[in-house]
Amino acid sequence: MTQQNIKQLETELWDAADDLRANSKLTAAEYKDPLLGLVLLRFAQNRYEDAKIEVQNNLPINPRTGEKREANKEDYTAAGAIMLPEKAKYDYLANLPESEDIAQAINNAMKLIEAEYPDLEGILPKSYQEFDDKLLRDLVRVFNKDAVKNAKGDVFGRIYEFFLMKFSMQGAGAQEGGEFFTPPSLVNLIVNFIQPNHGIVHDPACGSGGMFVQTAHFIKDHDNKSVNEAITVYGTELKSNNTRLAKMNLAIHGIEGKIIESNSFYSNPHNLTGKCDFVMANPPFNVDKIDAKNKFLADDERLPFGAPLTGKGTISNGNYLWMQYFHSYLNETGRAGFVMASSATDAGNAEKLIRQKLIETGDVECIVAISNNFFYTRSLPCHVWFFNKGKKAENKDKVLMIDARNTFRKVSSTINDFSDDQLEGLTAIINAFRNNEKSLICHSEGGTTEESLKKNNWLKTHFPKGTYQDVEGLCKIATLDEIKEQDYSLTPGRYVGVKIDIDMDFDYKGRMAEIHTELAKLNSEANTLMQQIQSVKL
């Protein structure tokens, strides 16, 4: 199935499912989990049918009987599939007689799978009785088309992620009290910058697990390895519903990992301090009401620079707790990339002191300022921070500043993202800085500067010579001395400056004359109105 075919299938399935919801009384939040559960069931049967051949071929022959033994659950697990009981198969549900209770049958299918696989216990949705019978049967038919029946695992991963994105755009996360989905452009930026291709990968605020999924794509595209051979993933998530989404997401993508429901402010459930090769996160911004007197927080080894306490001994927000966690999780060569509120780069008082100490470690590698409208349910701009404990010695006192607020593609009136050229161009900048190279190369474009410039218009526009240089309004390599002069601010705009584009073809003098004429006319009208008002006798 081509990329175009997959995109078309994603859109067709979503449109059909969303039309059904529009004619029901269900909100997007109420519809989300059961719909994603059906995607998982359909995928489980497709994967089961594919694995069945592989399992049968690999079964050992009993030397005494000359026959193969019966396949078991472990055989299917080894093949990356779930051994489905008959009544948990999608075909059974799709062919269920009209006289049977379809909601009860689907709930039962979910229970049967959970009974066989403890890792999924309590994770799968079992609230299908809230759907009316016709809606549910129509929805089951949507995922029983031939194109869906023949779809392979990676296609289902794409469908699952696409549906998560669509639900996020509809505000399903806001209805449930929080975000569960990080926009693909920001996830791709983080993954491309830190290149998580080995070892332990951790997301302490993992939402629906999108960081892990994009990491799997990165490994497949760049190293052609099995994701479960290359990395081990660990996630922590506060909200129960998001934890379920993440576990289903990993299951659909065939990613083995450990997701724990817990509060990262008061626990370190995976005990990964100093052990992670990569940390990625989009934590909740500006979290307040954190208990500064909590014993775990007071003794937390992940806070080497202390909690950002106010004069009253409280914590105004959790931004600088998160940042210290991410830094502390890294091993001696580890890298981290995370989304953070724009205010954090200039925050004062205790937060400024912590920021200064983080800068003085030499591990802050890059800050990227992002335009507004990248998130689906909030329009505020943000920054993406990058730590690298394996920075080269000559870069320890330098930080790459990128102001990408004018780098975006307009998807709609309320949503922006990065184009492929923009994302590859930004990645080429960090690679040049990290490797102390002048040449800017987009590795996906062939591996040479000439080929990169030929195929990447964004890169050619900003770096016509194909070599890195500080570009006013876009990027600058800031030294520690320059950062000290800016009072330890990490706002890229303070360093890269503002690029002023002058349109030489524009008639500035003519336009100014027009403005003066318009102003004179308005002043005349204002004087006339004033005279009329003053002439009125009370």
3D structure, described in words:
The structure is a single chain. The protein has two domains: 3-170, Ferritin, CATH 1.20.1260.30; 179-434 and 469-496, Rossmann fold, CATH 3.40.50.150. Helices cover 46% and strands 12% of the residues. It has helices at 3-22, 28-58, 73-78, 90-94, 102-116, 133-142, 146-149, 153-169, 172-175, 184-194, 210-222, 227-230, 240-253, 295-298, 319-329, 349-360, 420-434, 449-455, 457-462, 480-485, 493-496, 508-535, and strands at 199-203, 231-237, 257-261, 276-281, 330-341, 364-370, 382-388, 398-404, 409-410, 416-417, 475-479. The strands form two sheets. The protein has a nine-stranded mixed sheet. Strand 2 (231-237), helix 13 (240-253) and strand 3 (257-261) form a beta-alpha-beta unit. The radius of gyration is 28 Å and the shape is globular. The model has no long low-confidence stretch (mean pLDDT 89).
Provide keyphrases for this structure.
single chain, 538 residues, alpha/beta, Ferritin, Rossmann fold, 2 domains, nine-stranded mixed β-sheet, two-stranded antiparallel sheet, 22 helices, 12% strand
